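Suppose a colleague, Dr. K., hands you the sequence of a protein chain of 88 amino acids and asks what its three-dimensional shape might be. Before reaching for any lab equipment, you can write down a predicted structure in token form. Begin with the sequence itself:
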Amino acid sequence: MEESWDFEFLSRIVDGFVSFLSEFVDDWLANDMRVSIFKILFSWLVVSLIAIHFAWRVYGNTVNDMYYRQGTGGQNGGTPDTAPHRSG
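The predicted structure, expressed as tokens, is then:
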């Protein structure tokens, strides 16, 4: 009995997804103002994410080194365990 319920649940999910996609494609192909605005905003989002990805590839190590310093200062620029001795 559970198998038929699982199949019914899965088929409802698939049917809902297919109907959503068909409505989305119909709206996408329409020459409507809200579709044009959506396309512009979606394009802006995709271009921004691609730019962030490439910027992180180029400058990621530099940014990471700025916030996680190596050496006696500890992580995040904290104070060292021992006080430095000043001369003069």
